[in-house]
Design brief:
Blueprint lengths: L1 H7 L2 E2 L2 E2 L4 H4 L6 E6 L6 H7 L10 H15 L8 E4 L12 H12 L8 E4 L2 H4 L5 H11 L4 E5 L2 E5 L3 H4 L5 H20 L4 E5 L20 H13 L2 E6 L6 E5 L2 E5 L13 E7 L4 E7 H7 L3 H8 L2
Parallel strand pairs: 3-4, 4-5, 7-8, 8-9, 9-11
Antiparallel strand pairs: 1-2, 3-12, 6-7, 10-11, 12-13
Helix pairs in contact: 4-5, 4-11
Pfam family, one: Metallophos
Subcellular location: Cytoplasm
Cofactor: a divalent metal cation
Length: 311
Amino acid sequence: MAEERDVFLRARGRTLSAFREDDECQWKAPFYFIQGADPQFGLMKAWAIGDCDNGGDEWEEEIKLTEQAVQAINQLNPKPKFFVLCGDLIHGMPGTQWRKDQEQDLKNVLKNIDQDIPLVFVSGNHDIGNVPTPETIDDYCKHWGDDYFSFWVGGVFFLVLNSQLYFDSSKCSELKQAQDEWLNAQLAVAEKRKCKHVIVFQHIPLFLQNPDEDHDYFNLEKSVRHELMEKFRKAGIKAVFSGHYHRNAGGSYKDLEMVVSSAIGCQLGEDTHGLRVVIVTAEKIVHRYCSLNDLSSQGIEKELMDLIKQN
């Protein structure tokens, strides 16, 4: 049981125990990782019946889809460096009746991931609440590890953020301030160190298509967004990967790419259930959204595999 818990609690002390900085801070060769978002156990039923607040009492479809995702990842060769889930792990909000069962069923699926592929978790609004509190964040951390942290892989610096603190921190302003101070320190590290790339993971996108688009449920408020984008750009961050939208989207702000990935679970647009393959080379970050069916049956396409094989 302790070993199972460790798989889900590798993010501790604001870092990820799966990777040692001393081993990973130097560039070695191209690599790749898998990004997923929004398995959100319970939303498909809730969305189908038009009751997203109370309707998530079944999640068999999401179990099957997440099992398919895990099986597809496990058969990839070479193995990805890690599998990051960008939030909304489950649909049940803090304090709701289905939450505990949804969490356990998700863990029962994810524990089958290859032991050599670390899991990286990002908190979403359904994981800590639309208006998070110290209690909801603490509960999340007990189940999934720290809500924000950094780690190194292959000379690339990764930052995981709690984007809900940028959406509404009215009930946890001290925690928002703590993340801000931590982030400033991490961005200072990013500016000073000679990392090949700096990449951010967060649940809520900065923007969906245009950096100046209006604020709504699926992006961050404009002033917050622009402050973060400028901070990120100044620190040399190349890409931000997120979920939340349940559709593929994205755009650019100067040299910063915003990548919005659709869901493993419920689709709200025309995309298929899928995962994003992200290739990191010395010069660039290349990514492709793949349907679960295609990734399961065909693996990663040759064009992307050739990038990984470059020295």
